[in-house]
Amino acid sequence: MRGDRLISILLLLQSHGRMTAGELAEELEVSERTIYRDMDALSGTGIPVVAERGKNGGWSLLENYRTDLTGLKEAEIQALFVSPSAHLLEDLGLTRTSAEARNKLIASLPSTYRENARDVWNRIHIDTRSWRRQQEKTSSFEVLKRAIWEENKLMITYQTADGKQDDRIVSPLGLVAKGDLWYLIALKDNGEIRNYRASRIQRAELLDEAFTRPADFELAEYWNSSTKAFIKNLPSYEVKVEAAAAIVSRLTFSGRFARVLEVGAESGNGRVPVTLSFDTENEAIGYLLGFGDQVKVVEPVELGSRILEMAERTAASYREQDNSN
C-alpha cells in the first residue's frame, strides 16, 4: 500500500505543482505525519521533492522534473480504455480526437500493459442508444458547445412540451447526455439553474456578452441532485391488475412507460396480481388497452370503466367503417 501511495504523491505533485501536507493527507486519506514520512522516503530514493515554508509553502518537485511512471493498476487501465459511447463522441465532434488520445495513452504505458489496454476495446463496448428511438438532432448544437467553452451568454428560442415557443437569455454551464438525449444546463438571469432539452432549442444565438461561472458549480453533482429531485416529484398513478401469467414478463417491454411495483403469486385461474405505476391515468389507459383481454383492471374501479368505454367507442367506429363499405 505504501508503494502505491508514494506513486500517488508523485503524480499529484506533477499535476498540481505544489501541495501542502494537509492537502496531500486529505487527498490520500492519511495523517499529515504519514505524509512527512512518505516525503522522507521519496527523497531517499532520489526523487527531488522540495519543501517550502511559509504561508504559501508546501511540497513540490524540483523544477522541470518529470517521470514517465504512470502508477496505473490493471483495473485503472481497464477503466481508462473502456470504449466511450461512439455516437455521443460524434455529437461532440470528438470521435477522432478520442481515438488519437487513446493511442497516445497506450504509447505512454509500460510495454507489459499495452496489450491489455488494447484488448479492452475488443471486450467491452458501450452503446447508450435505445433500440427504437431515433437520435435527436439540433442544428444549434455547435453554438451551444461554443458558448459553453467561451463562457458567453446565449439567446435561445425554446419549445416547451406543449409546443409553445419563447425566447430566453441564458448562461450555459454544461451539456449532459442522458441515454441518447442531450440537455443544456444553463443559468437564468435570476440565478436559477435550469435544464433544457437540446432538441427543443429551435434557435441559438451567441451573444457578445460574457458571464462568470459560479465558482462552486459542479456539473456532475448538480445533475445527480437534479435527477433525484425530478424522480421524487414525478406524478404517480397506481393501478392493480390481474394479468395472464404468460404476459407478465412482457409488462415492462411494451414500448410505453410503466413501472412494475409488485408481482404476486399465480392464482388457480392462470392470472397473476400485479401492481403498476404510471404518471397519469391516460398513460395507464393507453398501456392497458394494448394488452386487450390479457389484463383486467382491479383498482381503481373507475379506470376499468373508462377503458371499457374507450374500447366500446373504438369497436363502434370500426363497425361504422364496415357498414360504410
From TrEMBL:
List the SUPFAM superfamilies: Winged helix' DNA-binding domain
Please list the residue ranges annotated as the HTH deoR-type domain. Answer: 2-57
InterPro entries (UniProt xref): CBASS_pafABC_assoc_protein, DeoR_HTH, HTH_11, PafC-like, WCX_dom, WH-like_DNA-bd_sf, WH_DNA-bd_sf, WYL_dom
**A Pfam family of this chain:** WCX
Assigned keywords, A-Z: Transcription, Transcription regulation
Domain of life per record: Bacteria
Name of the protein this chain belongs to: Transcriptional regulator
| The organism of origin for this protein | Rossellomorea aquimaris
Top-down, what is the taxonomic lineage of the species of origin? Bacteria, Bacillati, Bacillota, Bacilli, Bacillales
